[in-house]
Amino acid sequence: MHKTWSTPVCSEEKRLVPCKLCGSLSFRPSLLCENFSYVRCTGCGLVQMNPQPTEASIIHRYGEGSGEDYLLYQLQNEKTFLDLQLLALDDVDFNGLEKELFSTVKEPGVLDIGCAIGSLLASLGVRGWKTMGIEISGPQAEFGRTKRNLDIRTIALEENHFPEGGFNVVITSHLIEHLNDPAALAAEVHRILVPGGHFFVTSPNIDGFQARLFKSRWRSAIFDHLYLFSVKTLSRLLEEKGFAVEKIVTWGGLAAGTAPLPVKRIFDRAAKRFGFGDVMIIRARKV
């Protein structure tokens, strides 16, 4: 089982923090990985690193500490990553929402938080969206700005002080699990969305078949992921911050190379149909 790309495990300042979903300080061991581990909150079931690296450590890891390696990784896999993002958005009827918005709004605004090199923003810009991105990794943001002429900010979401109701859609793909305070992100996204605006969140699914099968060897149990959400815990977080969950889709039944292709295809179809996929996307509406 090959794990997702991650920054190298290193020694960082850590602290014990209350669960960001329910506020509990009661945890039990969950996953013991190589040189790091996860616990499960006994109150709500959210799996998390705790004690976890401080916010300053995380900012350094992705900001000052990030180099050209991850930029190269993004460039080498750009088409694959973009195709997966567009397919996931299509699964929760982003295209239908797009048609509806363009019938009433001349140039709807979309914010992609953790936009990397801006592939999705560039694609949406061609379709008529007014695009903006946030990416604290300097080399990736610089690529999107200089090579694609995109408006990409390099400071955290809250520090941008966007006006209330400034965006029709906010998208995060494989971002929320990296943050010290995912609840604060959801609250700020709610504030900056127009009434009835939509939040699309993609994240690994710890209740999926692969996570249950591989446990600590699961490909998303990596040093960079501070939280490992399930459909239940991520939905609860969004609902508690003022969103109505409209649609949930999971995908990825078996990882490539773990079974013959015909078997993998059967599992992949079943994972999407029955909701035990490796990755999930949630479409939520501001209420």
**CATH superfamily, called what?**
Vaccinia Virus protein VP39
Q: State the assembly state of the protein chains.
A: single chain
Enumerate the spans where pLDDT stays under 50 for 5 or more consecutive residues: none
Count of discrete structural domains = 1
> Total number of helical segments?
10
The CATH topology name reads Rossmann fold
Explained architecture:
- The structure is a single chain.
- The chain is built from ten helices and 13 strands.
- The chain has 287 residues and is an alpha/beta fold.
- It has a single domain (78-286), classed as Rossmann fold (3-Layer(aba) Sandwich).
- It has a seven-stranded mixed beta sheet with strand order 8-7-6-9-10-13-12, sandwiched between helices.
- Helix 7 (182-192) links the parallel strand 9 (167-173) and strand 10 (193-204).
- It is globular and about 50 Å long.
- The relative contact order is 0.15.
